[in-house]
User: What shape does this take?
Amino acid sequence: MELGGRMLWALLSGPGRRGGTRGWAFSSWQPHLPLAGLLNAKELVSHWTAVFEKRGIPEAQASSEYIVAHVLGAKTFQSLRPELWTQPLTPWQLQCIQELSSRRLQRMPVQYILGEWDFQGLSLKMAPPVFIPRPETEELVEWVLEEVAQSPCAMGTQDGPLILEVGCGSGAISLSLLSQLPQSRVIAVDKGEAAICLTEENAQRLRLLDRIRIVPLDVTLEGSWAHLLPWGPVDLVVSNPPYVFHQDMEQLAPEIRSYEDPLALDGGEEGMDIIIHILALARWILKDSGPRFLHIQRSGPRRGCPADAWPGPQPARVPG
Amino acid sequence: MVDCGGLKRKFMATGPGPKLAELLHMSTSSFFGLLARLARLCTMPQGLGPQAKPVLSAPRVAVTMVQAAGKKDRPALPLLDESELEEQFVKGHGPGGQATNKTSNCVVLKHIPSGIVVKCHQTRSVDQNRKLARQILQEKVDIFYNGENSIVYKEKQEAEKKKQERKRRAKETLEKKKLLKELRELSKNVH
Assistant: This one.
């Protein structure tokens, strides 16, 4: 095998080859691929899809497509200019794809591999272990926007609304609200240092730093709300808090279990540990006048409705 | 407040409505809507003579303008009936949410009566892909049922026509230049 072909083979084989323990390297080699030829994007996607499938990696094709598209400078494979699908890739591109794909073989979530993801049309930096925003959470943002649209007076006229987000993570919810409500301001809190840094970074990228205050805070600690009072009562409290039942944590997919911060997921025995504190905090921090809205995203039919714990005069909205 | 007379004059002077809509920072559809509303409100101004067409009889005029519109401000495609569509996409509503991490945002949309299927994975957002899938499907359904009369086909014809026209004019200009050059050469030789 000539040098070019050997190099190509090495690039495509992945990490398992040298150790020999996996033994899939050669068997995953598609016989119809030229040994010493030039490969294009489509062929590479096929190749890695097959590799991922063989190794039981979920969303094999989607993962492969995102990685290849990313290296070629696009967000999705379909959005690539069609001529790029069949153009030969450079050795550098092949190497990038190889590196990123080997991370996928380690079950790293695609969003962490690419280091970025989209949320409500915004491109946000992603970094482990900060929680990756879920697509369902985009709906949460839509609901908040609807509420604000329906009650403009209650939300303040000049600088409104003032929103508190508990558990901001990458800043997804806060930043999309800020970008779609030009007069709004946000106080975003999170217990994790990495989340605070990432939200700051994303806010800076999106030039929204002037309207967001990012505060490291653990809302489960006694009297934590006192730190927030100086910024005044807020119009809205939004959160996508940890709500997974503790006993379910083990069964989470490796992508989640091994890479995302468990504190961002674990809601304790009843799944309500953090939610209860948010409700208590909301009672103090929400403006007395006007509607009170608390949006909590939750999963499954099992858990009790957090709204039962809500002391306020109006019911808490708990979509999901 | 909209100056009806001024609007009419401007409209007649500059031509296609879509361009005017742009000038007014309006979408074409809201511009047509505005015209329709004005037609109901405004009476015929004294300024226009008897020969002047009543520009604000919007529906008729709108149709003419629509046919002349370019791709950017194209007329509305025939609407899709949601009950005739079958959609497939990955979006957790059950015990999903935080417990899963789905990245496959591909939307598959089928128009049952015609059997046309559109697959859209243009963006990383399911909602955005759903919207785009509908737009693409709208075009395809239009072509399917209207063939040569479809808006897409007509636009292509229009674009091709313009292209040919440009080519012809360019050729003409080239010929003229050539001719002029030859004449100059001739006159030089004579002296």
About this structure: The beta strands of chain A are 116-119, 122-125, 162-166, 185-190, 212-216, 236-239, 294-296. The interface with chain B takes residues 59, 61-63, 65-66, 75-79, 109-111, 117-118, 120-121, 131-132, 134-136, 138, 240, 242-244, 248, 252-253, 255-256, 265, 297-301, 320 of chain A (CB under 8 Å). Residues 135-150 of chain A form the longest helix (16 residues). Residues 238 and 295 of chain A are 5 Å apart (CA to CA).
